[in-house]
Amino acid sequence: MRRRVVKSVQVVLVAALAVVMIPVTASAQEPPPPMDMPPPPPMDMPPPAPPPMDMPPPEPMDMGPPPDAPMDMGPPP
């Protein structure tokens, strides 16, 4: 008799848990509300061009002679 009561209580608790959890789980899977963002561009369009720059391109830096160049020791003594 006691075993039957425990089993009945377990069944009722599991059913109550399912009744509560099913709507909670379903509401968690709903998409979030839309934000104030523009829609993404279509995939077949190229990305927008970068804005034009008002600065001239940087000049190349003078790095000196290459590392494998012989050192200039000056005239021989």
Structural shape = elongated
Give the C-alpha Rg: 37 Å
Strand content: under 5%
Mean pLDDT: 76
Query: What about the largest sheet?
Result: none
Helix content: 25-40%
**Total DSSP E strands:** 0
Region (Disordered): 23-77
Biased composition (Pro residues): 30-77
Question: Gist?
Answer:
This protein is mainly alpha-helical. It is built from one helix and no strands.
Characterise this structure.
- The mean pLDDT is 76.
- This protein has a domain of 27 residues.
- The longest helix is centred in the N-terminal third of the chain and has 27 residues.
- The chain is built from 1 helix and no strands.
- The chain is mainly α.
Could you name the key traits of this structure?
77 residues; 1 helix; 35% helix; elongated
